[in-house]
Amino acid sequence: LSAEEFRRLGHRVVDWVADYWARLESFPVRAAVAPGEVMAKLPAHPPEEGLDGEAGWEAVFRDLEEVVLPGVTHWQSPSFFAYFPSNASGPAVLGELLSAGLGVQGMLWSTSPAATELETRVLDWLAELMALPASFRSDSGTGGGVIQGTASEAVLVAMVAARDRVRRVLGRDAEWVAYTSTQTHSSVLKAALISGVARDVADSVHLRQLDTDAGYALCPDALERAIREDLAAGRQPFFVCASLGTTSSGAMDPVRSVVEVLGRTGFTASGGWVHVDAAWAGSALVCPEFRALGEGLEGVDSFAFNPHKWLLTNFDCNVFYTRERQALLNALSVMPEYLRNAASASGKVVDYRDWQVPLGRRFRALKLWLVLRHYGARGLRAYLREHVRQAELFAGWVEADARFELAVPRSLSLVCFRLKPLPGEASSDTDARNRHLLERLNASGKAFLTHTVLPGVDGAPSRYVLRLAIGATRTEERHVRAVWEQLGALALS
Ligand code: PLP
Fold it and tell me: What are the UniProt keywords, alphabetically (predicted)?
């Protein structure tokens, strides 16, 4: 493309995205295509000839409408309440475009100093905005933040750094054991598999997924017992992942008590590492009234959350803070000849490649920078508070309706609820009615929710539960009200 053609097509693409956002409410929220339907509309072989200049792009715009859009689940729809949100915003998308346009690969400070230094500065801003411990900031001299692609990469990096640190403290290898709760995100199991800590998905010796308390939070007593058992059996506890905002129900693990247990058991003295995964809920720390969630973070080794979930920054953008950046370097630094350069050798610069799994890295800080500048702290707080307010409203409607109940107390903007059991009804039948309700709601295309199964506590059966996760950029009270009314109507039929 010539510069002028790129300019004209670029304007059209931005127009297309702006129009897409304006028409979001006209699409069924969940893609209604059968497996293979999108592929069947695409040629089986790559084009031999390129497009016929700018005019040829008409076919691309047509395909976007006819091939791509029908197969898209509209995560940006204001009636998307499934999983956790993955929110995009104008400033973030423009930042993404700038990043692509600059085409920078910022693996080393020297391969684009601005990519590294903007990232460091923006992550220090964010640490300040969230009142995170000073030890996580780059100016602590020992800690700092880095943008990873996903929370899964963050926990893998933390686990590998943890094992390396304990190995150095002990001066030997060991039979490693990591701890989570049954409610911890599956990315920790994946990290254990990738790092070789767990032999397979069923390896409950090396990754202990502990039963929770009745609120689905990690139980410090159970953690203490498990660590002592493992030490007595000659195994080496080295890593704990606590969650702020579990995926199923938004439970908050008691970070401060976890840290205390770890101090008592010798875990900390042997170099053991606590990571806090706050993938979704972490963004809430931008609001002072939710900061109690972060109690005890000054005692943890790393903390990660996803602005790509609930801080207006499009996928992918995970922010990972550690108070000991040297531990990442110890575990992950490799220096082949072809990367050697004077800046790295001077020791005066940060090379973020040593803080992550891949070598190469995109200039993701641009989108976060634009989000923080565009909305400011005040705008971000207002955005988060509005979602929490909407969830409070919804939870109130659930509680006031005799047919429904909250499955657990609301957590920030996540409401887990279900149709109540009928008198004498078997739990499997209650589950089936809830599953049926969810299927009909999602098939309507008017909204999209997903489910979870919460384990039974104290001998009670497990429960199939609907999750309303509010967090799409354009969700207003009217959308939440509409989905509630629809649920009510479907529950009657
Ligand atoms: N941790 C928690 C608590 C999550 O809810 C999720 C995803 O929803 C993840 C980790 C994984 O996130 P990512 O896709 O960034 O790896």
Answer: Decarboxylase, Lyase, Pyridoxal phosphate
